[in-house]
């Protein structure tokens, strides 16, 4: 967020100057009056200028766009960003070439970018927390569908063998998908074990 300090004969005049310099409207900034100033005797003798601090209000979408543009550029990726903001959620879709690099191994790069973008967007803790969802080429939807099918296949194996099955380590997002996919199975139980980043889901027969 950009902040400037401006002087003027009055607070209103200083604010007008600040808005012109920042090229924004009044509703896009917060104003802190440092010194209201004084007109002095006959508006001449002992006059003191007003001084204010003007800060552009947080724009989550712009913060995310600027951060991701810089990161993707550093990765040698030319991409377009589609950003939607609603009800505390910032949904960002990345499109372009080399999206495999953005996704990374099983979405690890995409998850890291999402996490870092969330840190950037929520760096000012005075504002309401904004959730960030980062996706490209509908990867998350496809991955979720793949994990659901995989979970159902594992449930079938466990019921057939009667023995528990330990899945490979997954991130919290993917573990939640597995748990959710099997929660309606009356004869199947799921739980997580281990420490991050090696925490995994275990699928077993419900006793």
Automatic annotation (TrEMBL):
Residue stretches spanning the membrane: none
**What organism does this protein naturally occur in?**
Clostridium lentum
Looking up SUPFAM superfamilies in the UniProt record yields: R3H domain
* Location of the protein in the cell: Cytoplasm
Q: Its quaternary structure?
A: Forms a complex with KhpA.
Task: Write out the GO biological process terms.
Answer: cell wall organization; peptidoglycan biosynthetic process; regulation of cell shape
Family, per the entry? Belongs to the KhpB RNA-binding protein family.
State its role: A probable RNA chaperone. Forms a complex with KhpA which binds to cellular RNA and controls its expression. Plays a role in peptidoglycan (PG) homeostasis and cell length regulation.
**Pfam families for the chain:** Jag_N (PF14804), KH_KhpA-B (PF13083), R3H (PF01424)
In alphabetical order, the GO MF annotations are: RNA binding
Q: Give the comment on domains.
A: Has an N-terminal Jag-N domain and 2 RNA-binding domains (KH and R3H).
GO cellular component term of the entry, any:
cytoplasm
UniProt domain R3H: residue ranges: 141-207
UniProt cross-references to HAMAP family, sorted A to Z:
KhpB
Indicate whether Iron-sulfur appears among the record's keywords.
no
InterPro entries recorded for this chain?
Answer: Jag_KH, Jag_N_dom_sf, KH_dom-like_a/b, KhpB, KhpB_N, R3H_dom, R3H_dom_sf, R3H_KhpB
Protein's UniProt keywords contain Magnesium: no
Q: Which UniProt keywords apply?
A: Cell shape, Cell wall biogenesis/degradation, Chaperone, Cytoplasm, RNA-binding
Query: This protein's superkingdom?
Result: Bacteria
Q: Outline the segment boundaries, as ranges, of region: Jag_N domain.
A: 5-55
Q: What is this protein called?
A: RNA-binding protein KhpB
């Amino acid at each position: 967020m950009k902040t400037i300090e401006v002087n003027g004969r009055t607070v209103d005049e200083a604010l007008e100057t600040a808005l012109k310099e920042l090229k924004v409207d009044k509703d896009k900034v917060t104003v802190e009056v440092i010194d209201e100033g004084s007109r002095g005797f006959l508006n001449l003798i002992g006059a003191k200028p007003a001084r204010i601090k003007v800060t552009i209000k947080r724009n989550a979408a712009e913060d995310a766009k600027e951060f991701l543009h810089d990161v993707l550029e550093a990765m040698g990726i030319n991409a377009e960003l589609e950003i939607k903001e609603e009800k505390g959620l910032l949904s960002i879709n990345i499109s372009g070439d080399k999206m495999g690099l953005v996704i990374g191994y099983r979405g690890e790069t995409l998850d890291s970018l999402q996490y870092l973008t969330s840190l950037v967007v929520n760096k000012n803790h005075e504002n309401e927390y904004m959730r960030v969802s980062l996706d490209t080429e509908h990867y998350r939807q496809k991955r979720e569908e793949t994990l659901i099918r995989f979970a159902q296949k594992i449930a079938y194996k466990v019921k057939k063998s009667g023995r528990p099955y330990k899945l490979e380590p997954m991130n919290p997002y993917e573990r939640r998908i597995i748990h959710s996919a099997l929660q309606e199975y009356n004869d199947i139980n799921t739980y997580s074990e281990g420490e991050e980043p090696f925490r995994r889901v275990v699928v077993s027969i419900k006793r």
